[in-house]
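This follows on from our talk about sequence and fold. Please put the record directly below this note.
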Amino acid sequence: MADEAAIDYTLNNPDTLTKYKTAAQISHKVLELVTGWCVEGAKVISICQRGDKLLEEEIAKVYKGKKITKGISHPTTVSPSSFITPYTPLSTDADEASTSLKANEAIKVQLGAQIDGLGTIVCDTVLVQPEQNKGVEKSGREADLMLATYYANELLLRLMIPPGLLASGSEEDKKKASAEKPPSQAKITHLLEKLVESYDCNLVEGTTSWLFERNEIEGKKKIVLAPADGSKGEGSPEVGEVWGVEIGVSLGTGKVKTLDHRPTLHRRTTVTYQLKRPSSRQTLSEIVKKFGTFPFSLRQLDDERAAKVGVVECVRKNVLRQYEVVVDKDMAPVARLLTTIALTRNGLVRLSAPPTLDISKCRTEKKITDEEILKILQRPVARSTGAKAKNKKKKKKPAKKTAEEDDEESSSDE
């Protein structure tokens, strides 16, 4: 324990960023393959099982022989069109196990890996297109949803960057920029609402971005978008932090409701309690050993039926937190993106991020016209550094590639 306490797990230690990036590479590779499996008629449970198997195989290939923990930081989940929260059905629940993907659904795929307790999670939204329509441009409300979500995510990422971090000009200009206060959470929600309204969409209420820490994906700080029921965020992003940044957009009102489905996604809390039932103690012991404090699905436990019984007391005594199945109140299509970022002295690094949307294949007459929002979207997310930056000066890139270029630039930070 003394050796572990002496390890610096902040971003000041290059090994920390390396572990995050290793976990992110695994998350990216598996996400790309899993989204490819999301075709019309595919069973959700089958995709989830195959995704977890692939995560485990890829994780096993890295840091071999090292005395560090590693594993899945978020199980593979596949959420149908109107589902908001990650969805992972059980084989022992016949009705839900039969859930299959339908054509033109907006499917949310979420998963993640962790190395030494340093977790990355990523979520992407893909449209399930019939085989004959693959590669065809999106139009109408489908295009509105995808574009609203893409640009809202880009706006939110830029609003996560501390004021003045990337300021240019004279020293006086830089000091002035650094002295500015970060945008309030109410301001962030307001700007995002204006953006998605450009596409006749709404923010999903209560969408939350969390500070990530070692063995913790819901840290001391959080940003809550379109808060409901008196919920509110706390704190602002700072250099040296890692965040899970999430955006949710609906073609409906954005209001939510909880379905009467069995919660299958759980996570251990910091609460300790002497459980009474032997089945509860056995289930908790397996959870601690396999998942630590990261989320897991009951289908990942050795005996799914026993797990359904064993978690009851754990949840009742707050030893485990269960994630309810939440959907759009109007059952309208919802899109969601989640990006794990690191904030360094050179700006924002996208550790694990959904692929950049090909906006040339989204056709709609709607567009963003608000000048304040357009100016923010033009901001870089990172400072150009090193050889890559020099090479970029020699090549003129199309304007549409801006977000992707920012990502490439930021990957060379630290």
